Structure to design on (265 residues):
């Protein structure tokens, strides 16, 4: 079991060498770091900032595990009115804008040399329809074609809307014959929607990574694992029984560094 972190838990701070140093000085080695692409945190459109982060990884003889696609194109996470990065939006122009924004973040692979792009489909209110399926296929096909020459594998993440439930993701990947795209199974989202056992069953054979955060079963709280109601021992056993060796990315909004060694076993 390889446990890493998403820098989502530090979104209020700029991603710079001092922050990365502090993250690694928590008493344990982190085999994986996912960079969360939010401009106030990691400005993927600023070449100097990208180069600064890349130099840190180079001097630490490491590369980031991957990057999480941006959810908003601005520095205020939409609070100032910027529209969300929604790959399923009904308006074609909004979908094109969303794809372009994800590609801007993805381009940093040329400098940072990460291997995974994690994307989430749609917003909370997005439902499921033949048009949703078509829009999802178009977005994922486009992003996968862009990611492939960069050496990046696209992973689609289950969310809190109907369009991104685990069984819907598998339908999208199957209908589109998107064999290269994997699933990043978000266990917190699964717990608050279909339930973790059902999510694991639906995505069996397509899971490429797991996300760890906790909640009380009815909303997306992004708590540190162990601070909600998920039975993590049972969950780890279920994943192990499936015979998969996966990276688990901790995706809480607030770090609990003292509890990190226990997660790593």
């Amino acid at each position: 079991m390889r446990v890493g972190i998403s820098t989502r838990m530090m979104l209020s701070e700029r991603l710079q060498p001092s922050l990365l140093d502090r993250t690694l000085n928590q008493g344990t080695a982190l085999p994986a770091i996912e960079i969360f692409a939010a401009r106030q945190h990691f400005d993927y459109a600023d070449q100097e900032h990208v180069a600064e982060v890349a130099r840190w990884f180079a001097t630490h003889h490491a590369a980031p595990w991957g990057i999480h696609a941006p959810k908003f194109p601005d520095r205020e996470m939409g609070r100032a009115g910027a529209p969300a990065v929604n790959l399923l939006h009904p308006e074609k122009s909004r979908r094109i804008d969303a794809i372009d924004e994800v590609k801007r973040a993805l381009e940093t692979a040329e400098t940072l040399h990460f291997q995974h792009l994690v994307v989430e489909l749609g917003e909370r209110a997005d439902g499921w329809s033949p048009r949703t399926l078509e829009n999802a296929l178009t977005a994922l096909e486009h992003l996968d074609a862009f990611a492939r020459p960069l050496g990046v594998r696209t992973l689609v993440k289950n969310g809190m809307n109907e369009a991104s439930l685990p069984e819907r993701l598998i339908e999208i990947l199957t209908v589109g014959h998107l064999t290269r795209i994997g699933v990043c199974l978000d266990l917190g989202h699964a717990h608050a929607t279909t339930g973790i056992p059902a999510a694991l069953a639906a995505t069996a054979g397509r899971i490429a990574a797991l996300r760890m955060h906790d909640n009380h079963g009815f909303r997306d709280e992004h708590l540190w694992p162990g601070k909600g109601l998920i039975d993590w021992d049972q969950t780890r056993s279920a994943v192990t029984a499936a015979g998969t060796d996966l990276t688990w990315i901790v995706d809480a909004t607030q770090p609990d560094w003292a509890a990190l060694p226990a997660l790593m076993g």
User: Anything to note?
Assistant: Residues 130-147 form the longest helix (18 residues). Residues 197 and 234 are 10 Å apart (CA to CA).
